[in-house]
């Protein structure tokens, strides 16, 4: 894979989504033959660093190079401004406000006649959240959910993508569309449909299962996790399969042909050649799935509204934060719970990228060692 | 598709035919799993409450699609179609502005060099990793402080930001806009913004459509933000309205056909968009995957 790792452009730290593995910036097959695909990403640029420097760049050749550089800096600022202003308002500010809020708590003043007052409580909200068994159980539920859902999603998505990529598959366009289509269904509607399909009076599934002698209560305590995992899989399996499939299609076919010539069968090719080559996509999907999973809310909320469900209103940390804010009006506690959740997301995404980075480094070292000994 | 020819030495004699059936059978099975709830949604939407609760799901007994649609249009003075228009406004308007904001930023990241550029881009990528629902609560509290809570703005402004859209836009600009075209425009004396607007933007239009499509889907499907921000039914998007109806359905089974038929109509625009714009979402997922 070393031949593919060319620094298309300085990677913005870590194998996050920005980690480009090859020099092909274009959107896959569609950009083939587009005039832009072959150009080097740096060749025509003015060198980085101080933009006004009279370096041997195209800017210097042009009349008014210096003022041209200034115009470009101005244009860059102008084009970036809308995004970063919105980014500050919608992302940075709320994060700061959540941190601030999480340090305060409402106290009944006096004997409870004078209403409430807001007092500084330090890390009190954090200890309150972490000390609450319901909040901790929410994280346990989340852990269980991740341990079941993420392996199933990755294995299922990769498996389907490999099947679709194999020479034997037919009607690829149809399958791609059919598997992707659940992504067009809003999460709330997906949850509604499935909850209806879980409800004995409404569901053909439950009826068919009963006819087949399988009784399964999707709303029972042991059924809650599988019920939620199934909804999430239905929503995201096809979407991620298409990502993997796109990555597989981007593999240089001559590599695969070489493997075939060397006598590798379909299985061998899939596991020893194709999978290692699309590692970056797998890492990216894993990363996004972890972050998405931590926010689990909609599906269990709908299950919670289903009659007699084992899903409580504080089943996941996100539901806990929501209930804290809107049922108990305890904004400090809600903010602390949100911050803890975001912190977990940050730690986990760091761990995933780190793990992936380490493994990549190791495999490179191994390869280098092999080359040395050879 | 550049499929390798199946002439390679087959390891098993019964190989090609059997494994072909197995591969396509597995794919077919998973396609059925994906499509079956949607098929159920279509047949269920044609039934009245009795047919839905008692009957066979895939038959057409108790067929009453017309009645369901009429009730949907009448209930609460046609509030459902109000929600529909709201969703179109949030998703259409929000995605339009968002995709232009993203393309402008992506273009700047791709075209210009300035100090700290990659660091700034790193900030954008960090934004991709922030769980959006963790922001919704503080955003609600901020909005109620400033008095914009429970208004169109409360739902529209937060969805204008999509860091991943900026990342995609940068990739698309690198792929679609040849540097020579921009140089030529500059030599001809076009200003920088003019160059962006009349040279860069038209060239990267397919990328813009892709970013628009993904953001439209994200906003159309968004539930947590409106749930937190809105209390006035007249401002609800479809997702929140259907949720409210569903909460009534347990006490009042008459709501079931409304929820099911309403869900079907809510799914239609995105299904149409994804079927007709296949090239664009595939491009987005390809660009997002490795590039």
Structural account:
By secondary structure, chain A is mainly alpha-helical. In chain A, about 65% of the residues lie in helices and about 5% in strands. Chain A starts with about 55 loop residues before the first helix and ends with a helix. Chain B has a domain at about 60-95 and about 130-165 and about 205-290: MetI-like (MetI-like fold), CATH 1.10.3720.10. Helix content of chain B is about 75%, strand content about 0%. Chain B has 14 helices and no strands. Classes of the chains: A mainly alpha (about 375), B mainly alpha (about 290). At the A-B interface, helix 2, helix 4, helix 5, helix 6 and helix 8 of A face helix 1, helix 2, helix 3, helix 4 and helix 5 of B. Chain B: InterPro entries: MetI-like (IPR000515), MetI-like_sf (IPR035906). Chain B: Its main location: membrane.
Q: Which second-level CATH architecture of the domain at 62-96 and 131-164 and 206-289 in chain B applies?
A: Orthogonal Bundle
The CATH class of the largest domain in chain A turns out to be Mainly Alpha
Kindly report the name of the CATH homologous superfamily of the domain at 62-96 and 131-164 and 206-289 in chain B.
Answer: MetI-like
State the oligomer: heterodimer
Tell me the name of the CATH homologous superfamily of the largest domain in chain A: MetI-like
Note the overall shape of chain A. Answer: globular
Keywords (chain B): Cell membrane, Membrane, Transmembrane, Transmembrane helix, Transport
Pfam families (chain B): BPD_transp_1
Subcellular location (chain B): Cell membrane
Protein name (chain B): Carbohydrate ABC transporter permease
């Amino acid at each position: 894979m070393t031949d593919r790792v060319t620094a298309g452009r300085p990677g913005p730290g870590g194998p996050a989504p920005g980690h480009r593995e090859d020099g092909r910036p274009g959107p896959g097959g569609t950009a083939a033959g587009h005039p832009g695909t072959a150009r080097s990403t740096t060749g025509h640029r003015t060198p980085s660093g101080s933009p006004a420097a009279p370096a041997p760049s195209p800017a210097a050749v042009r009349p008014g190079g210096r003022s041209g550089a200034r115009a470009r800096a101005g244009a860059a600022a102008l084009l970036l401004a809308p995004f970063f202003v919105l980014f500050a308002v919608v992302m940075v500010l709320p994060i700061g406000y959540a941190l601030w809020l999480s340090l305060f708590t409402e106290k009944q003043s006096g004997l409870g006649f004078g209403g409430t007052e807001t007092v500084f409580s330090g890390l009190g909200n954090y200890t309150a959240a972490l000390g609450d068994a319901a909040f901790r159980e929410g994280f346990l539920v989340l852990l269980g959910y991740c341990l079941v859902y993420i392996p199933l999603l990755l294995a299922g998505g990769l498996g389907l993508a490999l099947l679709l990529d194999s020479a034997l598959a037919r009607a690829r366009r149809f399958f791609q569309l059919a598997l992707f289509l659940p992504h067009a269904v809003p999460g709330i509607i997906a949850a509604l449909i499935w909850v209806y399909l879980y409800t004995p009076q409404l569901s053909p599934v439950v009826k068919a299962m009963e006819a087949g002698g399988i009784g399964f209560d999707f709303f029972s305590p042991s059924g809650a996790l599988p019920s939620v995992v199934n909804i999430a899989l239905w929503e995201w399996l096809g979407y991620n399969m298409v990502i993997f499939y796109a990555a597989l299609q981007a593999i240089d076919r001559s590599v695969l042909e070489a493997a075939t010539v060397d006598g590798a069968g379909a299985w061998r090719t899939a596991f020893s050649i194709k999978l290692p080559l699309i590692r970056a996509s797998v890492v990216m999907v894993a990363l996004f799935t972890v972050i998405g999973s931590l926010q689990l809310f909609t599906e269990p909320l709908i299950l919670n509204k289903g009659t007699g469900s084992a899903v409580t209103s504080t089943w996941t940390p996100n539901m806990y934060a929501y209930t804290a804010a809107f049922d108990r009006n305890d904004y400090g506690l809600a903010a602390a719970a949100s911050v803890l959740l975001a912190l977990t997301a940050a730690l986990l995404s760091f761990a995933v990228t780190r793990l992936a980075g380490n493994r990549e480094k190791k495999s490179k070292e191994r390869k280098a060692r092999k080359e040395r000994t050879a | 598709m550049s499929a390798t020819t199946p002439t390679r030495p087959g390891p098993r004699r019964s190989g090609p035919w059997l494994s072909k059936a197995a591969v396509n059978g597995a794919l077919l099975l998973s396609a059925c799993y994906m499509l079956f709830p949607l098929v159920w949604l279509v047949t269920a939407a044609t039934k009245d409450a009795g047919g839905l609760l008692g009957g066979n799901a895939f038959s057409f007994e108790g067929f009453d699609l017309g009645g369901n649609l009429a009730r949907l249009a009448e209930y609460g003075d046609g509030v459902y179609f109000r929600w529909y228009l709201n969703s179109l406004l949030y998703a259409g308007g929000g995605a339009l502005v968002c995709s232009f904001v993203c393309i402008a930023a992506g273009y700047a990241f791709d075209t210009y060099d300035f100090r700290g550029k990659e660091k700034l881009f790193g900030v954008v990528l960090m934004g991709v990793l922030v769980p959006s629902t963790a922001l919704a609560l503080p955003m609600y509290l901020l909005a109620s402080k400033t008095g914009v809570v429970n208004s169109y703005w409360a739902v529209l402004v937060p969805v204008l930001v999509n860091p991943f859209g900026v990342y995609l836009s940068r990739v698309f600009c690198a792929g679609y806009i040849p540097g020579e075209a921009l140089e030529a425009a500059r030599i001809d004396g076009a200003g920088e913004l003019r160059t962006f607007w009349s040279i860069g933007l038209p060239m990267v239009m397919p990328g813009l459509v892709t970013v628009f499509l993904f953001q439209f889907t994200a906003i159309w499907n968004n539930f947590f933000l409106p749930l937190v921000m809105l209390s006035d039914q007249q401002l609800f998007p479809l997702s929140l309205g259907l949720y409210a109806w569903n909460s009534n359905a347990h006490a009042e089974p008459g709501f079931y056909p409304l929820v099911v038929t309403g869900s079907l109509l809510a799914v239609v625009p995105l299904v149409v968009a994804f079927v007709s714009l296949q090239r664009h979402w595939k491009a987005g997922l390809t660009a997002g995957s490795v590039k």
